[in-house]
Write a structure and sequence with these properties.
Length: about 140
């Protein structure tokens, strides 16, 4: 099983460029209404315009804020330091700066580093290094 998250966004093309840069993804579809973003041929995520209903009806209510309340899009990235740098290049809003999970001195947990961001639409994004990367 693989997850293939789809999020509704205001500007599919701008969001596509943002995620392509942040996560080093490639466009597999392109366009103003819908986008598939992949890496090495594997679908990572999908973007859909709020205002386009296609055959399934509306995805959600674009006036309900914040988007994705209670949901985080979590990406484990092998190039964590470079991804953090790319987030800076995008001027991404930082919700929680780089930190270790769990905090230093606490046993257990993934022992990795994380940074929490917001994308162009305000969705919560977490970039995490591989588990064990920040072992004490």
């Amino acid at each position: 099983m693989r997850s293939q998250p789809l999020i509704a966004v205001q500007d599919v093309e701008a969001s596509s460029r943002w995620y392509q840069h942040l996560l080093r993804l490639q466009s597999d579809h392109g366009g103003k209404e819908y986008e598939r973003l992949s890496r090495d041929g594997e679908l990572i995520m999908q973007l859909h315009a709020w205002t386009v209903e296609h055959h399934h009806g509306p995805i959600g209510d674009p006036n309900a804020r914040p988007y994705g309340n209670g949901v985080l899009l979590w990406f484990e990235v092998a190039d964590f330091d470079d991804a953090v740098r790319r987030a800076g290049e995008l001027s991404a809003e930082i919700v929680m700066p780089v930190h270790r999970n769990p905090p230093v001195g606490e046993p257990g947990g993934p022992a990795h580093r994380e940074i929490w961001l917001r994308d162009l639409d305000g969705y919560g994004i977490v970039l995490a290094s591989p588990d064990g990367e920040a072992a004490e």
